[in-house]
Amino acid sequence: MGSCVFPVFIGLILLQIHKISECHKIEVTPDSGTIIEFSKKAGHGLDCSVCKEEGPSETCNSSLKLTEAQPTNVTFNCSQPGDVFNVAIKQEIDCSTTDCSIIAVHPDSTRFLEFTRTFNWHLKVQSGKMFQLDFPSPGMRQIKPSESCPDKHTYIITTYQRVGLTNIGSFCRNGTISRIQVLYKGRVTLEVPKGTDLNPSDIKVSMGPAATGVVEMDVKLPRGAFSVDFFTPDYLTGYYDEQKMKWNFAVKPMHNFTVRFQHYIPPECQKKTVMCDYALGDKTSFTVAPTETQPANKQGDFSLTLTNCDTKKVANVSGLSLNFNVEVFRSGTPYLCTVDLRNEEGLSLQIENKNRESYCEMSLNSVMQEKIVVPAGTKADLSFFDCPVQDLQLTATKVIDCPSVSARDATGPSLTIPTLDLNLPVPLHQFTWLLRLRDQSTVDLMPPKGSSLHQSVPDKQCNERVSLLISETEGSSIGQFCSAAEGTIQKIQIKGNVSITVTPNNIKDLSQEKGPFLNFGISPEITENVIYTVSPLISGPMYLATPNWPDGMNPSSSASWIITIPQEYKAELLFSNVSKPKCDSGHTEVSIGPLDSQGQTQSWREDQSFTGPVVQQQSFYLNMSNCEPKSDRFAVLSKISLQKEIKKFLSIILAIVGALLLLVIIAVIVVCVIRKRKNKPNNNRSSIFMPRGKPVLPGNASFPKTRADNESHVYASIDDPTMYGHLVDKNQPAEVDSGAWSNGHQVDAYCPFQGPMDSVPAATDSSAEYSLDRREGDAFQPFLNPPNTFNLPKPRSPLILQGSLGFEDRRMMDNALNTFKSVGDINPIRLSADESKLQPQMDSDLDSYPEPEYEESV
């Protein structure tokens, strides 16, 4: 026997160790004014109890209530207490003397997660009042008591009456009931099964109006077709008390409602009958019995008041039980149309109601939609019910698969809006092209011929008919542009897929715009994310904004501008608005340099100050790259102004002035030369020495006075020996013709001296011939022989008009003065044009004598 006792003893010890190992211990701290109670489920865990530690002693029982707001260790002598015990958290809310507060649940959603939890809020107001529960949007939905809520959070509202506890109903979230008012005092219960995270709604509690019935509910019916059920208190057992129940329904405009009693169990009335009172708006009201036809196809807000009769509550006698349904639907006739997109490749449509307060109902293939989307390549039937055109917004999207850059023709079609179905009642508000590339390449966007692109910035926004929003398909915006005749951007190159969205500025329907908005082509991949080709305007400044302006550029992205400057102009670049980031890695950089790579390059980083205006004398590039920002953003707005090149203009002016000055100098020199030649005496002129007269120049020299006014041609005597004595040969005979000619020039005629003079024999005419060439043998006589007498005879020269010399003296030979070239007869000479017109007058005793010609000595 002793051998049997020992194994039993060992088994008891192991059983006790197993029980101790199965104990579950938690620490509980109740909130202020909150009671926590652990209670067993009916028929579960007869051998499991809950214990509370209080110093050296420990008390265990089938239930435990904690009321003090202090930490308490609670121990369960079973491993799975959640299967045996429920946890109830109770809170008293008294609204009879003070303002009520919002019903709040402990913020720790994992508290008592292993137990089934029941939250009870006991509400109390003044006698004869109702407590009011306001539910957050979207409200509550009433269900049958046997049902459960989808989120496993079920609210139960009960009220305490003289006849006992009355169940107002069970409710779930996401319904149409916005407010419930309950008689006098009651309770709100929230049940959450174990293992479910707590996610309660904050219910606002307040004191309501004076009691008019056991319960009153406010219901907001939604738009469109909708149906909702309601139940009377104590729906399963029946309601016996003679009280009123009221429901207030708010119906949207242009909606009809219909009330249907789906399940009705009449009570056994001792007094009075059950009646249904309806009030439509503020004026119309009527009463019907529950068994009669209820209102149908009515419009406007309404209320239903159900009044119970005096029912005796005894066994096997039913009380009032009613389940009714309210259905709302739209009134009017919808607009129907069909959209066929099977012939337009890549085109899809989206229609959205932008006025959430309107009563528009849209359907796609008879299915109501908040937003209609017609996929590409499909056909759809659309329905619009009470939808004002101004509340609808139609957008279209076209996907274009771009050709490969290696293709022969890498130019895509122009971006134009295709013709849409004219049956659509909505104007086109927005159109988007999605350009998808097949390989690593670049999209080149160019404006239509005859125009340029202009970027919209705060200082110069787009005022054209439409605007173009260009973005990368990842969502990063390049900028907003418009096609303008006075634009500056000739091309935009973007690496990767591109989205172009056109929106109207001052037009209502984009479908009326038929012309191309952009041309595009495909080129090899570029190193930057974006490259702009820009030609500034001479008429005014232009602005360059970084991509995604005024927000910052994407991290580690770059953009470049190629600016072409016209000849005879220079560009002034000013950074008017700069936002610098704090870089986490790398640096931001702004660099400027000429396109020919021969000039100086300037660059700045985010930790450096940007200089003032930068002047470029020729076409240049502007490059900006972003770092990996740690904070802030990198965004730059630049301004470019063109100015006339002053140096070149001045050089042109100086060249023109110099050329004119040179011409003036040449003209002055020519005039001076001409005048000098006119005033310069002839090199062939000879002077005649006249001892008693004035020297007179031959040729064109004129006398100071005319011949009629002076006596310069009248001589008193001519002393030939004095003039020619050293030249005349002493052997020359005296019978020499004393001519009045010298050096071939006519020196005028002589008149006899009429005044007193010495006794000189009078000169007689002589027919002696002058010999101009005196030769002895071979000897040459260069000089004339002197005359025989100093009283030279009067020359036999014909007397002609004054001022005319008709003969030359041929007696002289070539002399030291080289006056005559050769010997010859006396030749006539014409000294001037005026004198040549004069006819010589001969003496009466002489025959006609020709005028000797004048020979110029060489």
Short description:
Residues 1-23 form the signal peptide. The chain has 858 residues and is mainly β.
Describe the protein's architecture and organization.
With 858 residues, the chain is mainly β. Among the domains are: 221-331, Sandwich (Jelly Rolls); 527-644, Sandwich (Jelly Rolls); 647-680; 688-858, no CATH class. 7% of the residues lie in helices and 39% in strands. The protein is built from 4 helices and 57 strands. It has a 9-stranded mixed beta sheet, with no helix packed on it. Strands 5-2-7-9-15-12-13-11 form an 8-stranded mixed beta sheet, with no helix packed on it. Strand 22 (275-280) and strand 23 form a beta hairpin. The protein starts with a helix and ends in a 22-residue tail after the last helix. The model is unreliable at 1-21, 696-705, 728-747, 758-825 and 827-858 (pLDDT under 50).
Query: Given the C-alpha coordinates, what overall shape results?
Result: elongated
Mean pLDDT: 77
Contiguous helical run count:
4
Report Rg: 66 Å
Domain CDCP1 second and fifth CUB: 103-207, 429-506
Transmembrane segments: 649-674
Domain CDCP1 third and sixth CUB: 221-315, 528-640
Protein name: CUB domain-containing protein 1
Relevant terms:
39% strand, mainly beta, 858 residues, disordered C terminus, single chain, elongated, Jelly Rolls, disordered N terminus, 8-stranded mixed β-sheet, 9-stranded mixed β-sheet
Topology:
Blueprint: H1 2-21, E1 24-28, E2 34-40, E3 50-54, E4 57-61, E5 63-66, E6 72-76, E7 85-94, E8 102-103, E9 116-124, E10 129-134, E11 140-143, E12 154-161, E13 164-173, E14 177-183, E15 186-192, E16 203-210, E17 215-220, E18 226-231, E19 244-250, E20 255-265, E21 269-271, E22 275-280, E23 284-288, E24 298-299, E25 302-307, E26 310-311, E27 321-330, E28 335-340, E29 347-353, E30 361-364, E31 367-369, E32 371-374, E33 379-385, E34 392-401, E35 428-436, E36 441-446, E37 452-455, E38 466-472, E39 477-484, E40 489-495, E41 498-504, E42 519-524, E43 530-534, E44 542-545, E45 558-563, E46 569-579, E47 582-585, E48 589-594, E49 602-605, E50 614-616, E51 620-625, E52 628-631, E53 635-644, H2 646-679, H3 720-724, E54 741-742, E55 745-746, E56 774-776, E57 779-781, H4 833-836
Parallel strand pairs: 7-9, 17-19, 34-35, 43-45
Antiparallel strand pairs: 1-6, 2-5, 2-7, 3-4, 3-6, 8-16, 9-15, 10-14, 10-16, 11-13, 12-13, 12-15, 14-17, 18-27, 19-25, 20-24, 20-27, 21-26, 22-23, 22-25, 28-33, 29-32, 29-34, 30-31, 30-33, 35-41, 36-40, 36-42, 37-39, 38-39, 38-41, 40-43, 44-53, 45-51, 46-50, 46-53, 47-52, 48-49, 48-51, 54-55, ...
